[in-house]
Specification:
mainly alpha
Length: about 80
């Protein structure tokens, strides 16, 4: 029979609850505040620029065209 008075380790549970609370707080800030909205817009622009650079690099590698020319073509197609 299991001893009901035996001490159990709850460190993982407490850590998971703390991490979940921090994540929920961060998402709340990002989604519900004006500063969070501005941050999301900057991240979106940053991600679009990184994606364009990556696509231009792949296009340049596969076709042998200069990356600057491929970047212009990528910008024209994506925008």
């Amino acid at each position: 029979m299991k001893n009901p008075f035996e001490k159990q380790d709850k460190a993982i549970l407490i850590g998971a609850i703390a991490a979940g609370a921090a994540l929920a707080g961060g998402l709340t800030w990002l989604l519900l505040t004006e500063d969070g909205n501005e941050k999301r817009e900057r991240w979106k622009e940053w991600m679009e620029e990184k994606a364009k650079n990556m696509i231009a690099g792949c296009l340049s590698c596969k076709t042998g065209v200069d990356k600057d020319v491929a970047k212009g073509a990528t910008d024209a197609v994506i925008d």
